[in-house]
Specification:
With 359 residues, this protein is mostly helical. The protein has 17 helices and 2 strands. It has one domain. The chain has a two-stranded antiparallel ribbon. Helix 2 packs parallel to helix 15. It is found in: Cell membrane.
Length: 359
């Protein structure tokens, strides 16, 4: 028996192919208010707990969102949660560009930049190979490896926007987020200590930490926990990874489109995940903001406000995504679903350590 007509897909995001049902689609601002308000209140609670107990903000938001997962049964909340998990996350990704400039590539140096590219591509490959080894979807491995290689949650959200809920459901996407934050938290705790035991120089330690820790705040914090100079290097390396978000996601979009053409229009698996008309608008916005910041050197106050806003946008989107996740499906995934993130994290650490030793 078919589902009721009101639950059939009514549309999809042009660049993400995220299915929107008649109940989920935000038709008016008024209908988005209940879900947005709930996500905002949960985000405030996450911010308070993060500030008082030292837990990473996005991780706390994810946990609170999962704890409130039962609210996804209330269809009145669906439009607001959908708006937060899709539109707000894209705006947040655009705003990240205000903190990135083209000069950061030059400050890194060509040898280190080349090593960083090799590390990132190897980490992505590790995620894909681990997924294929466990007979999981290759795109799930791409999501896990890409998020690990680039910048954690922001990259995961950007890649998922391209791959789409139709190919990787919210439960498995949430698993990737959980795995990323688990590995990133462990890295923050152990990588600076490992760098100290190995007696790495500030430049070496900064490169290791910036090239291997997924989350931006934890990568920068880990660098400064080693030394001031290491923190500055870690910041440059990490922000270089963030700057590569746009070109790498663009490459993935082109690859998906090529696969769709290669397999034919009837191949729903890949064809449904492909942007149809050029680059996603949020990637174009990210690139433009980086160029503007590079040419005009945006005021520090403006950059600070934009990053605060970006953090809140990403927090709201993560909270909303966690609330919308199907927990029953999440709990049935098993430990194998974390293997691509674990494998990608291990490759990132050992390759970053090897490259750091040569610097």
């Amino acid at each position: 028996m078919s589902e009721p007509a009101r639950n059939l897909p009514m549309g999809a995001d042009l660049y993400g192919e995220l299915l929107i049902t008649a109940d989920d689609r935000p038709t008016t601002i008024r209908k988005t208010i209940p879900g947005l308000l709930l996500a905002f209140i949960a985000s405030l609670a996450a911010a308070w707990l993060s500030e008082h107990y030292g837990v990473p903000l996005i991780l706390m938001g994810l946990l609170i969102g999962l704890g409130l997962n039962f609210v996804n049964q209330d269809k009145r909340l669906a439009p607001g949660l959908t708006f937060a998990s899709q539109t707000l996350l894209r705006i947040g990704i655009v705003l990240i560009g205000a903190k990135v400039t083209l000069a950061q590539f030059g400050a890194l140096g060509l040898p280190a930049f080349g090593a960083l590219l090799v590390i990132m591509l190897s980490v992505i490959a590790a995620g894909i190979l681990a997924a294929k080894f466990l007979k999981q979807d290759m795109l799930f491995g791409l999501l896990a490896g890409g998020a690990t290689a680039i910048c954690g949650a922001s990259a995961a959200l950007a890649l998922w926007s391209l791959i789409g809920e139709k190919r990787i459901d919210q439960a498995r996407f949430t698993l990737v987020l959980v795995g990323i934050f688990m590995m990133s938290a462990m890295a923050l705790a152990f990588y600076p200590a490992i760098a100290g035991i190995l007696e790495l120089s500030d430049r070496q330690a900064g490169f290791l930490i910036g090239a291997s820790i997924h989350d931006v705040a934890q990568a920068i914090g880990g660098g400064f926990s080693y030394s001031q100079a290491a923190g500055e290097i870690a910041t440059i390396v990490k922000l270089t990874r963030v700057a590569l978000l746009a070109p790498l996601v663009a490459i993935f979009a082109i690859w998906l489109r090529a696969q769709a053409k290669k397999t034919g229009a009837d191949d729903v698996t890949l064809g449904s995940a492909v942007p149809r008309f050029g680059l996603p608008w949020f990637i174009i916005g990210f690139i433009l903001l980086v160029l503007v910041n590079s040419m005009f050197n945006l005021p520090g106050t403006l950059v600070g406000y934009s990053q605060d806003l970006a953090s809140w946008m990403l927090l709201l989107s993560v909270v909303a995504t966690a609330m919308k996740s199907n927990m029953s499906a999440l709990l049935t995934q098993g430990w194998r679903s974390f293997v691509p993130v674990i494998a990608a994290t291990a490759v990132a650490f050992f390759m970053a350590l090897g490259a750091a030793m040569l610097l």
